[in-house]
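Standup notes, structure subgroup. Blocker cleared on the adenosine-5'-triphosphate input:
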Amino acid sequence: MNKLILGRFFPGESILHQMDPRAKLLAGVYFILVLFVANNWQSYGLLWIFTLVVMYLSGVKFSVYIRGVRPLIWLILFTVTLQILFTSGGKIYLDVGPITVSNFGIISGIYIFCRFVMIIFISTVVTLTTKPIDLTDGINALLKPLKRLKIPVDEISLMLSISLRFIPNLLDETQKVMDAQRARGTEFGEGNLLRQMKTLVPIFLPLFASSLNRAEDMANGMETRGYQSGEKRSTFRQLAWKRKDTLCIGTMIILTFGLIVLRTGGFIH
Amino acid sequence: MQITFKDVTADYQIGPLRTPRVLDSVDFNLEPGTFTAVIGHTGSGKSSLLKAMNGLLIPVKGEVHIGGTVINRSKNKKSLKTIRKKVGMVFQFPESQLFAETVEQDICFGPLNFGVPLEEAKRIARQVIQQVGLGPDILTKSPFALSGGQKRRVAIAGILAMQPEVLVLDEPGAGLDPRGKKEILSLISKWHNNEKLTTVMVTHDMEDVAHYADNVVVMEKGQAVLHKGVRELFADIHALKSLRVDIPQARKLQLKIEQETGVKLPQVCLTIDELANCLMKAGLV
Ligand SMILES: Nc1ncnc2c1ncn2[C@@H]1O[C@H](COP(=O)(O)OP(=O)(O)OP(=O)(O)O)[C@@H](O)[C@H]1O
Ligand SMILES: [Mg+2]
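Run returned:
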């Protein structure tokens, strides 16, 4: 229950903590896109250096990031295995029917692995160094242009911030209900899959019930205090773009140029 | 059933971190058949103490003995299950654990988990629902459609149906109206006497302590700083002051009368009835 790292905030004073959430979000998303530019070991090396420096700057211990990867490791290895088995070309080590293990396969497997891990690391950096509330403010600000397309951006980000706000409560409550059902003789993680699924019912139903009740209380509370959707509203917290943030965007541009120079085939493939 | 804490220290693990000790060298012994009240300020470790009695919080040091079964660091799953069968635990706001389609199914959940046959479980459900003061017609209703007080009773019935030998309750009256609270506590007290249980109850209300308990454990910063009979506790006014424990109304009145009249009554009175009797015997009224 307490092991999930992705999506958590670690309070701190690092330069990354002080940055504008908009800059971090933009840079994070851009990093994921620019990952696909890399296609040889030099360009992947540059990405790794960038990732590791950013992780170092966050001031969060390295082991925390490793734990963030752990829950996803099977998914990653599965994808990597597929990539290795179904890519052909180059020197062939093993060949059984459609399955071949070639050096192209192994190399692209390694690249895929790096991509996965770096995406997790960088998104973890963003969430670890940004308060959830700032994150939603940032998302709200970045999605503002979509308002023209009649997309209810404010409502979406309100939903997001309310959900984030209640995650800790939900975790606490899950713990409580699990304890209560344990006291009534339920054993979790025992028996076959069907039995394990069955033990989830006595946890989820009470949680759903209390979440629905809370949602209703909250909606009533907002309505009695005059909340109206679709109104123009001012915000209590103001986002401020600083020098650091411009610097961050600049770094991303330099990173892009570096990758283009290093990748095989230059700018176009 | 005897409950013994031997130098028990425990904490919670949150991710990589451990909280400071929530139980710190707790050492006491509750005799079989006693009704013990656990009091203490908020965050003093009362709920954690109860969890340790049910194997939900495992000591990092020391051991908890429930009858012949031991909970310590090297517990195994089997002994936890034996303990949970013997110890019925009513959590704070237990209505949040209700989940089944009907009240009957919810009450049967515990017994079925502990291997009671379905027919037998249904028979027990019928019996306990009356013990908690509800009619058998409620058994077919959905637990989510009940009032707050009814839910509380159903949840408690779900624990009583496990026929535990030890009953531990975390503020069973919290959030109920005074009358509902009194009814629940007196049904617990009745059940305690009829079934010869060993009962431990967390409460903030000294009136409850005076009315229902015969022993008190005072918790402070994870330590059990005092374990005494109720009358002894309320006899020692100085200790009460230093522990910042409230005094029940009847006892307060008794002290006031003793001060005004200069007559010392022969016993510590915990309820108004006791006080009235005492006063009459002493010839003060
Ligand atoms: N699941 C948990 N994880 C981490 N820490 C916890 C957990 N439950 C309790 N604590 C901590 O343990 C300490 C004791 O808590 P506990 O719930 O036992 O107190 P309490 O005496 O029951 O308080 P209250 O009167 O408010 O119910 C507190 O400092 C609390 O923050
Ligand atoms: Mg408590």
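Discussed briefly. The first helix of chain B runs from residue 46 to 53.
Next: hand off to the docking folks.
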